[in-house]
């Protein structure tokens, strides 16, 4: 394959004896590098290389004006805005910046296409007047402001243009316009030079003017990369080339370089549909893994946002790679640190906590968990995080945080605590960010140091701009421009530009050719980009003044796409098969055109191989050390909840009871279920405590109803420390708890209204007993805390409160042998164990009637849910007797024996109930 640039150099060498006085101008900096290498290869004895420049640099030289930075341009524009707009009509800097970038984009196009600004803005105002806004005889104030905005645009354009021009700085359009104004002078001073213009396609009006003047003065040769298909009127890719060939006076007398014939070799074209971006990039990586030599291979990302994913998906055989896109600063890990820091303070303002110097706990945790900040002292920070989660405070101050650790530890991380004190001066805030970068400098190495330096330059840029213009007056505006710089700025990659794989965006392929081309994201809305409303200028006005429309931009991408494939032998075009649900994202029409013109194309739909991994059942053998811990556990006392956790999952029991690994505490922003349960238990204990060993009267219940609110407030204060129960979900949960207790007390009152006698025997009663099991050489201690023991009309009731939903069927069990194999029987296990402990403590073999059960606050209408030992439907046998206690104890001992049997490992339950 002979590349376009190689053909150009061959032709230039035929027509020019040397490179003296030749100036090469190309579309991009990358194409300049390739052309330079081609000259070295084809003319090694040529002496000095000719001057080679990208079009942007060449136009700046012609205009004698430097390109202004996008952020500085915005600051400069706001200065013009303040000088030319009446004070009562001015907007704040952050509000101004929302529309200013669109206006600057339009100014850029107006100048690039040499539009008469006075005539243009006059027409634009007239068009807006004809809009619906001014159909009424008396327009509204909103309509008047709308028209006034477009009148102001004309004033701002003129003022900005003049100021930038006088300062010898400009946006790209201004530079193009001044280049055309300076063209005559430039030509007269460059009569000896000959300009070789290589690989261009869609020229703006200024470029057209410059190219034609150079051609008409015999100072230039233009090499177009075209083939005969581009001159077919139905091919949108050639719309610009056809126009130049037809309309430029130079080509009426001179040949058009070039209109090449099709390349005579068979192309291997593959269309690959892949679901989602990740699959596309992973498949591109698989394709690259089959290639041995990458010297003539390009991976083109139509969607440049996939760069990070691509870099993480490259195969190991890619040793050398050239990337000129740059890595967006917003995707660099360090960006999260400053995003978190700004949000910490912005949310403080949002929650109106500035006076109290309080911060939202999630923002504090996000900051303290940041990996870069943990490089300073991760041990203290993790200790602090654990304290925050344990204290359950929704809003925190730096002073509160300092109390969670020792004064010595607080002194060690004083630089981190300083981040909670942002100055009201924006310049001081910027300096704090720079100081943080300097503090991190000695704790990083490798690429992380490069990250720090790049962010150091970002904050220096902000510092310089605000010192010069003083437009950033608050933290919100600072964050706005910080994020804008991060979106626009990139971290450059270093590498050998001519070796290995070429990773590039679509525009960077201009004038370059490769044998193997892989293009990803070949979808509508990406390639081509489709309609873009990033403009204040209506479509009709753009057409009238010759400004580019979305149709022109589609034609540009069509040219780049077809040109890139023209000389390639192996072509892989990957598109996303999953649309976004709004009619966009389907396969690009460029692919459909290819299919029509190339019936032999290979079409494939791929999907990732999903490997079904059968994880082995986790099995933990009982070592002597584990057996020793089990002995200690059962000697100290085993509770019903511990036995229930074993039935639920033996491995979970092992983790919690042997390894003592429990779920990490989390801050409860909304009251958790367990907190709600604990509070209700505490309130009921407090309400009934004065009546232990006494009968409860109706008057007592009435008094309890009065006291319940204050007790709820008290215990929520203890269990939900510093949590807000006055608003939102927590207020609802508080009211739910109050309603539960009210309904429960009403049920108690109904019992008393039926002339029943209710006596409280014990509340939150701790019970324990020892049993001996055959084959185990030490006594087993059983323990538990019963929520309530009372006596109702001579029947002793052992009651467990549950804030969750429990039904009567949950307490029905006729055969205790199934109790250890099914988690649903753990509620009967619990209440039966309480009965056994009660009988052991009282030396009573159930000679008096005893019932055991649950009161479910989510099922209060069912009242006291009793144990039911009947195996017949519709019948209830609720009294506890030795007859039903014996089979229970048999199964209980079997479960304990299984746990303490060294031959039976802890085996993970594969069928957890929930």
- Write down how many β-strands occur, each being a DSSP E stretch of 2 or more residues: 25
Shape: elongated
User: What structural class results from the helix and strand content?
Assistant: alpha/beta
- Determine the number of helices (DSSP H or I, runs of at least 4 residues): 33
Major β-sheet annotation = 7 strands, parallel
Mean pLDDT: 90
Proportion of residues in extended strands = 5-15%
Distance between the termini: 64 Å
Helix content: 40-55%
Low-confidence stretches: none
Cα gyration radius (Å):
40 Å
Q: In what order do the strands lie side by side in the largest sheet? A: 9-14-8-15-16-7-17
Which features characterize this protein?
914 residues; 7-stranded parallel sheet; alpha/beta; 6-stranded mixed sheet; 25 strands; single chain
């Amino acid at each position: 394959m002979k590349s376009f640039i190689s053909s150009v150099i061959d032709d230039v060498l035929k027509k020019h004896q040397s490179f003296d006085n030749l100036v090469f101008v190309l579309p991009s900096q990358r194409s300049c590098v390739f052309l330079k290498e081609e000259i070295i290869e084809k003319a090694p004895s040529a002496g000095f290389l000719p001057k080679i420049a990208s079009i942007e640099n060449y136009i700046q030289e012609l205009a004698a004006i430097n390109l202004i930075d996008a952020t500085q341009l915005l600051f400069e524009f706001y200065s013009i805005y303040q000088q030319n707009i009446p004070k009562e009509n001015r907007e704040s800097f952050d509000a101004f910046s929302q529309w200013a970038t669109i206006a600057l984009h339009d100014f850029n196009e107006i100048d690039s296409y040499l539009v008469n600004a006075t005539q243009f803005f006059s027409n634009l105002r007239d068009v807006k007047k004809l809009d619906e806004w001014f159909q009424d005889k008396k327009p509204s104030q909103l309509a008047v402001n709308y028209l006034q905005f477009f009148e102001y645009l004309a004033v701002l354009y003129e003022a900005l243009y003049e100021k930038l021009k006088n300062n010898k700085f400009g946006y790209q359009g201004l530079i193009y316009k001044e280049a055309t104004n300076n063209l005559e002078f430039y030509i007269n001073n460059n009569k000896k030079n000959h300009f070789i213009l290589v690989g261009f396609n869609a020229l703006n009006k200024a470029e057209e003017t410059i190219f034609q003047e150079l051609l008409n003065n015999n100072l230039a040769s233009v090499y177009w990369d075209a083939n005969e298909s581009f001159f077919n009127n139905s091919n949108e890719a050639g719309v610009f080339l056809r126009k130049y060939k037809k309309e430029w006076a130079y080509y009426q007398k001179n040949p058009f370089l070039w209109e090449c014939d099709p390349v005579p070799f068979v192309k291997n074209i593959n269309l690959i549909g892949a679901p989602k971006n990740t699959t596309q990039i992973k498949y591109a990586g698989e394709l690259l893994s089959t290639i041995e030599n990458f010297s003539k291979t390009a991976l083109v990302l139509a969607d440049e946002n996939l760069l990070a994913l691509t870099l993480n998906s490259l195969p190991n055989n890619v040793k050398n790679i050239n990337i000129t896109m740059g890595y967006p600063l917003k995707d660099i890990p360090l960006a999260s640190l400053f995003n978190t820091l700004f949000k910490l303070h912005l949310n403080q303002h949002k929650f109106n906590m500035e006076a109290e110097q309080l911060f939202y706990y999630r923002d504090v945790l996000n900051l303290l968990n940041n990996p870069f900040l943990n490089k300073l002292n991760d041990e203290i920070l993790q200790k602090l995080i654990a304290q925050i989660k344990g204290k359950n405070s929704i809003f925190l101050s730096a002073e509160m945080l300092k109390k969670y650790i020792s004064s010595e530890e607080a002194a060690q991380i004083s630089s981190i605590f300083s981040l909670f004190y942002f100055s009201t001066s924006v310049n001081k805030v910027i300096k704090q960010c720079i100081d943080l970068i300097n503090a991190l400098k000695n704790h990083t190495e490798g690429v992380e140091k490069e990250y720090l330096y790049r962010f150091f330059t970002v904050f220096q840029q902000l510092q310089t701009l605000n010192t010069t213009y003083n437009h950033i007056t608050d933290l919100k505006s600072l964050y706005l421009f910080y994020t804008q710089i991060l979106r626009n700025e990139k971290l450059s990659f270093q590498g050998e530009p001519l070796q290995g794989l070429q990773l590039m965006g679509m525009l960077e392929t201009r004038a370059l050719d490769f044998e193997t081309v892989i293009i990803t994201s070949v979808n509508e809305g990406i390639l081509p980009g489709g309609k873009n409303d990033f403009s204040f200028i209506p479509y009709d006005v753009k057409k009238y003044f010759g400004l580019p429309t979305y149709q022109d931009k589609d034609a540009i991408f069509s040219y780049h796409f077809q040109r890139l494939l023209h000389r390639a032998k192996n072509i892989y075009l990957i598109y996303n098969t999953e649309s976004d649900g709004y009619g966009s994202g389907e396969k690009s029409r460029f692919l459909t055109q290819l299919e029509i013109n190339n019936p032999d194309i290979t079409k494939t739909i791929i999907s990732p191989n999903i490997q079904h991994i059968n994880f082995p059942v986790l099995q933990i053998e009982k070592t002597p050390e584990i057996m020793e811990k089990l002995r200690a556990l059962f000697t100290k006392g085993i509770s019903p909840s511990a036995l229930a956790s074993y039935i639920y999952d033996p491995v979970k029991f092992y983790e919690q009871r042997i390894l003592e690994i429990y779920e990490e505490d989390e801050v409860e922003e909304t009251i958790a279920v367990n907190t709600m349960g604990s509070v209700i238990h505490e309130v009921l204990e407090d309400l009934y405590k004065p009546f232990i060993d006494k009968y409860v009267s109706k008057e007592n219940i009435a008094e309890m109803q009065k006291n319940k609110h204050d007790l709820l407030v008290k215990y929520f204060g203890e269990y939900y420390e510093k949590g807000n129960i006055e608003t939102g979900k927590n207020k609802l949960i508080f009211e739910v708890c109050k309603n539960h207790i009210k309904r429960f007390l009403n049920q108690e009152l109904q019992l008393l209204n039926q002339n029943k006698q209710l006596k409280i025997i014990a509340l939150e009663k701790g019970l324990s007993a020892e049993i001996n099991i055959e084959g185990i050489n030490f006594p087993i201690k059983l323990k538990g805390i019963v929520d309530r023991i009372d006596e109702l009309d001579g029947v002793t009731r052992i009651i467990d409160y549950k804030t969750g939903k429990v039904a009567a069927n949950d307490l029905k069990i006729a055969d205790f042998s199934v109790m250890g194999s099914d988690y649903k029987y753990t509620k009967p296990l619990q209440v039966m164990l309480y009965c056994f402990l009660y009988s052991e403590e009282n030396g009573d073999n159930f000679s008096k009637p005893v019932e055991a059960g649950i009161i479910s606050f989510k099922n209060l209408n069912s009242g006291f849910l009793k144990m039911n030992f009947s195996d017949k439907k519709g019948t209830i046998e609720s009294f506890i007797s030795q007859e039903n206690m014996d089979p229970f104890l048999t199964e209980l001992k079997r479960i304990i024996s299984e746990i303490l049997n060294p031959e039976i490992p802890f085996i993970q339950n594969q069928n957890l109930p929930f």
